[in-house]
Specification:
It is a single chain. By secondary structure, this protein is mainly alpha-helical. It has one domain. The chain is 75% helix and 0% strand. Helix 7 packs parallel to helix 11. The longest helix is centred in the middle third of the chain and has 37 residues.
Length: 277
């Protein structure tokens, strides 16, 4: 006598990857890549070195003039000197933002991640949250170090800080630099998701942020300058400037800077949700 065992339906996995687990996984991923570590180290050095160099140049001019007080009317303060390396901070944000998606796509690890966490927008949101937070913190640290370098080197030449308001002349520009870099990283993440290529994402983002506004501003038509004024490269740079007070223009630049990063990210996330990894 034999018994027949009826086949049972395969049980579906009920385990879901939590948002916290996704964030932890993305942080491990971004922090473990050697290229990201090198980008942060080199980017920070390239932010600090120009600040020290320009402080030495202005300090030498101030010393050669016999520390003429009249020179203080045109010499920049340490807060402005610290911002001279902003290009490298934004380039660092572009490299990090593109690598978060493009490297995983090229190696195939993105498929593994999506098999464990099939909700693609959640995966993209975790990537954006980690890269935005990491880029903001890294950029602020870099500019704080640049400020310290400008202050110390300038002090060796007897150069005064030449800062009228610490909040608007130092603190807000550094925070603005962090926001600019973080939004650029989110922007590049979205572009990388659209193009699926780290090389093209970096190239397109750098052209959009730095080159396109300059080209539009030089056109012989007024609309070119008007368009350049609202692009990410222009609005982000405006956040680095010292302002006498909070103004409508400053708040508009802040909103536009955040909006560019959000628009590119949501566009990339929407495309990822509709196509194969």
């Amino acid at each position: 006598m034999t018994t027949t065992i009826a086949p049972t339906a395969p049980q579906q996995a009920t385990h879901r990857v939590s948002a916290g687990s996704l964030l932890k996984a993305e942080w491990i991923s971004i922090a473990s890549l050697r290229s990201n570590k090198l980008s942060w180290i080199i980017g920070t050095a390239l932010v600090v070195l120009p600040a020290a160099a320009f402080a030495a140049i202005y300090g030498a001019q101030f010393t050669d003039s016999g520390q003429d007080p009249a020179m203080l009317e045109w010499l920049p303060g340490v807060g402005e000197i610290a911002m001279n390396g902003y290009f490298f901070a934004i380039a660092m944000a572009v490299i990090i933002g593109s690598s978060v998606y493009a490297k995983e796509h090229s190696t195939g690890s993105l498929r593994t991640l999506l098999s464990a966490a099939p909700k693609r927008f959640g995966v993209m949101a975790a990537k954006a949250a980690v890269v935005i937070a990491a880029t903001f913190v890294a950029t602020v640290i870099a500019f704080v170090l640049a400020l310290a370098a400008a202050w110390i080197v300038g002090g060796l030449f007897g150069l005064p800080t030449n800062v009228d308001d610490v909040l608007f002349g130092v603190v807000l520009p550094i925070i603005g630099a962090g926001i600019f870099a973080a939004s650029t990283a989110a922007f590049t993440l979205g572009i990388a998701a659209l193009l699926r290529s780290e090389t093209w994402a970096v190239t397109a983002s750098l052209v959009f942020v730095f080159i396109l506004p300059m080209i539009l501003a030089t056109l012989p038509w007024s609309w070119g300058a008007d368009v350049a004024d609202v692009l990410l490269g222009t609005t982000g740079q405006n956040l680095l400037l010292a302002h006498g007070a909070l103004s409508g223009d400053l708040l508009l630049d802040l909103v536009l800077t955040l909006a560019w990063g959000a628009a590119a990210f949501f566009g990339g996330a929407a495309v990822v949700a509709r196509r194969d990894a």
